[in-house]
Design goal:
By secondary structure, the chain is mainly alpha-helical. It folds into 2 domains: 63 residues, Orthogonal Bundle (Arc Repressor Mutant, subunit A); 64 residues, no CATH class. It contains 7 helices and 2 strands; from the N terminus they run αααββαααα. The protein has a two-stranded antiparallel ribbon. Helix 1 packs across helix 3 and helix 1 packs across helix 4. The radius of gyration is 18 Å and the shape is elongated. The protein starts with a helix and ends with a helix.
Length: 148
């Protein structure tokens, strides 16, 4: 399950992707449009700024804009930035591998074998689906295409 912070981050990026290219969007506008608490959104956008996903501009015409094109920002990338590892078990994590505390051996672990398939399928969808896909595709169409 993803956190509320990750959902807000994805929604904020979708709002920025729908804005006119090169035109910054004010935090207050995103917060209202996406129903995100403004203070929480400020923190999220700052995290995304530090990771090179968005940029900010100061001043009267200021706000936030995508630093990378929406078709180059994947759901998986954002979830890793906001929530950390995506794997359902620590022994399946690509970025934060840890042996499970009660592990008798990964090769013989029935649970790991099943969840390895889940992790692979999840990564396939998350790292091949971009913010642009989410904005332009009819709801569920992109996921259905990837799972076909």
């Amino acid at each position: 399950m993803i956190t509320q912070k990750a959902k807000y981050a994805l929604r904020a990026l979708a709002a920025l992707a729908q804005a006119d290219p090169g035109e910054p969007v004010m935090i207050s506008d995103i917060a209202v449009q996406q129903n995100i608490p403004k203070k929480f959104l400020e923190q999220i956008l700052l995290d995304l700024k530090h990771q090179g996903i968005v940029a900010s501009r100061r001043g009267k015409q200021g706000g936030y804009l995508l630093l990378k094109p929406a078709d180059e920002i994947t759901f998986g990338e954002i979830l890793r930035i906001i929530d950390g590892p995506i794997a359902p078990l620590p022994c399946l994590s690509i970025t934060a591998y840890r042996k499970c505390e009660d592990c008798d051996g990964e090769q013989n672990c029935e649970i790991r074998h099943v969840f390895a398939k889940v992790a692979d399928a999840t990564r396939k969808v998350l790292f091949s689906t971009t913010i642009a896909d989410a904005v332009v595709a009819p709801q569920g169409a992109e996921v259905a295409r990837l799972l076909a």
